[in-house]
Amino acid sequence: MAKRGKINQRQRILEEAAKLFKSKGFAGTSMRDLGGEVGMEAASIYNHVKSKDEILESICFYISDTYISQLAEVEQTATPYREKIETLIRQHIRLMLEEGAAVSVANNDWKYLTGDKLTAFKDARKRYEHGFAALIEQGIAAGELQPVNVSVALFTILSAVRWVELWYRPGRGVSADELEQNILTMLLNGLAK
Amino acid sequence: MAKRGKINQRQRILEEAAKLFKSKGFAGTSMRDLGGEVGMEAASIYNHVKSKDEILESICFYISDTYISQLAEVEQTATPYREKIETLIRQHIRLMLEEGAAVSVANNDWKYLTGDKLTAFKDARKRYEHGFAALIEQGIAAGELQPVNVSVALFTILSAVRWVELWYRPGRGVSADELEQNILTMLLNGLAK
User: Fold this and answer.
1) Which end of chain B has fewer beta carbons closer than 10 Å to its terminal beta carbon, N or C?
2) Could you give phi then psi for residue A192, rounded to 5 degrees?
3) DNA-binding region located at which positions (chains A, B) (predicted)?
4) CB contact under 8 A, A193 and B85
5) Whose CA is closest to B189, among B93, B88, B85?
6) Are A174 and B82 inside 8 Å of each other by CB?
């Protein structure tokens, strides 16, 4: 029970930290700010996390590990390429809707990672982009996808999806399902009839 | 001739300022930095521009005026909606490729505008987004476009196009024409066959 409580506290600290980093930036957030949000003395927070840097690492790698494991699963599933890409886009949108603050931190504050952690994060991003690009390439080779330039296709998808963070607010007339379905329509079928 | 020279000097100051604002941010750029780039004493720069704020205004409104006049022209041209939207996407990409630094400043540093100028810039952006959205809506009503949610379609297009600034570098294997054509294919026809 004691251990479980400690894990939950850590989880709560990470969640509040992600929200603070998103709104004030990693550099602009102090352990005192974080203490205020979780209702703990800054000193007590160190019973659950090692440092502000360690919090950032946990958030960034939670997101990049999620992306990488989703990619690995899609790569191994025997479905048409079109479906593989649809699944990745769908997962991207869902992660953003469910873990918006953490995704935002991984997108914007990863540059405050240092040393090995920075290298590992950049490597994970490259692994994801290369894996996603390879699926597009294979889909084109298999005749399932249009013969577009793979980089342009990849970055158009990632840009469209990433920006959801900046403009989408739930409850303003577009539901999460509608958002997902419409982005998939735009990217896979296009706007023109 | 003297007047012409003065206009050219002002133009050159604005171009160098856009590059500096893009790389160092508006807040991080001083008139002394700008003087260094254009090879003038900071004091002499004031013969051509009123202030750093006025430089920012000129850059932001140059870009927003360009968008608005392109939109107005497209609205008045008697072509199918699909073509209207294609033209706007194409112009967006071209402006980014030709005036990358100024577009970046208008995208990122507009928030340093103040008072009436800030209001006018936000109004111009709204006018553009509403006008673009109306064309999508009319295109759907006319049966030329897929019945997507208009906001999702608009922001997917704007996000995909805006991000070109962040990932595209000419001369890395994708030409400007190829970039334009591939983005149009993705957004209008979709990736799937």
Assistant:
1) N
2) -75, 150
3) 30-49
4) no
5) B85
6) no
Chain A: closest CA distance from residue B131 (Å): 17
**Residue type at A29 in one-letter notation:** T
Provide CATH 1.10.10.60 ranges for chain B: 1-49
What are the distances in angstroms from CA A182 to CA A89, A93, B70, B149? 11, 11, 27, 7
Q: What is the pLDDT along chain A (193 residues), one digit of tens a residue?
A: 456 677 799 999 999 999 999 999 999 999 999 999 999 998 899 999 999 999 999 999 999 999 999 999 999 999 999 999 999 999 999 999 999 999 999 999 999 999 999 999 999 999 999 999 999 999 999 999 999 999 999 999 999 998 888 888 877 788 999 999 999 999 999 999 8
Chain B residues whose CB is inside 8 A of the A158 CB are 163
CB pair distance less than 8 Å for A188 and B191: yes
Number of helices (H) and strands (E) in chain A: give both, helices first.
Answer: 10, 0
> Domain A53-189 falls in which CATH fold?
Tetracycline Repressor; domain 2 (1.10.357)
Cβ–Cβ contact B185 with A under 8 A: yes
ipTM metric: 0.86
Q: Do B186 and A188 touch (CB under 8 A)?
A: no
Model confidence over A92-110: pLDDT tens digits? 999 999 999 999 999 999 9
pLDDT of residue A51: 96
Q: What are phi and psi of A94, to 5 degrees?
A: -65, -45
- Nearest neighbour of A183 by CB, restricted to B156, B178, B179: B156
Q: Which amino acid is at A182?
A: N
Fold of B1-49: Arc Repressor Mutant, subunit A (1.10.10)
Which residues of chain B neighbour A156 with C-beta distances below 8 Å? 160, 182-183, 186-187
Distance from C-alpha of B2 to C-alpha of B24, rounded to nearest angstrom: 32
Residue of B nearest to A142 (CA): B193
